Amino acid sequence: MNYANSLVKSRSKISWKQVRYVLIGFFTAIIWGGNLAPKANAAPIYDAFVTYSTTKITAIMAGFPVAGPLFTTLFTAIANLIPWAVLLIVGGVAIWQAYLGYQEYDRENFSGIVKPMLNIIVLVILVITTDRIVTYMFTGA
Fold first, then answer.
1. What distance in Å separates the CA atoms of residue 114 and residue 122, rounded to the nearest whole number?
2. Dmax of the chain from CA atoms?
3. Do 90 and 131 contact (CB within 8 A), yes or no?
4. pLDDT tens readout for residues 88-133
5. Distance (Å, rounded) from C-alpha 95 to C-alpha 24?
6. Residue 99 main-chain phi, psi, to 5 deg
7. DSSP letters for 37-49
8. What CA–CA distance (Å, rounded) separates 73 from 57?
9. pLDDT digits (tens, 9 = 90+) for 40-75
10. Relative to the CA of 17, which of 9, 50, 75, 141 has its CA 20 to 30 Å away?
């Protein structure tokens, strides 16, 4: 047995699967905590925006009798997908940063893990702050 190898301690590596489980638990806790926090209901304001925009688009598309209803329906569908698209983008960025952190961990560069972790924390703080600001702007609560 080589003396140098006997001095090296074997470390148990954390797998990417375990990192994913921790991320799922972390984001689930944030979502449940965000839903339990008292806040004003901003959904009617967003619905009013979609209704107002659809009405304006319908008026503009009245000049195009064949394509008008189709474009109005498409606009309404796209407008209703905006919040989900934002959530998918934020989730994608968080997973990407988590994977970058895992790569640094795999290279045993523990100081390199800090940057992706801070990026995820800042991203979550920005999303929560943006939600509160938009809710206050529309409802005053």
1. 12
2. 86
3. no
4. 888 888 888 888 888 888 888 888 888 888 988 888 888 888 877 7
5. 10
6. -65, -40
7. S-----HHHHHHH
8. 10
9. 565 666 677 777 777 777 777 777 766 667 777 777
10. 9
The secondary structure of 36-101 as a DSSP string is: HS-----HHHHHHHHHHHHHHHHHHHTT-TTTHHHHHHHHHHHHHHHHHHHHHHHHHHHHHHHHHH
Q: What is the pTM of this model?
A: 0.54
Residue 98: burial class (beta carbons within 10 Å; 0-12, 13-18, 19+): buried
Residue type, 117: M
The amino acid at residue 31 is: I
The angle, 0 to 180 degrees and rounded to 10, between the axes of the packed helices 43-61 and 68-106 is 130
Q: How far apart are CA 96 and CA 86, in angstroms?
A: 15
Place of tokens 């003396």: 3
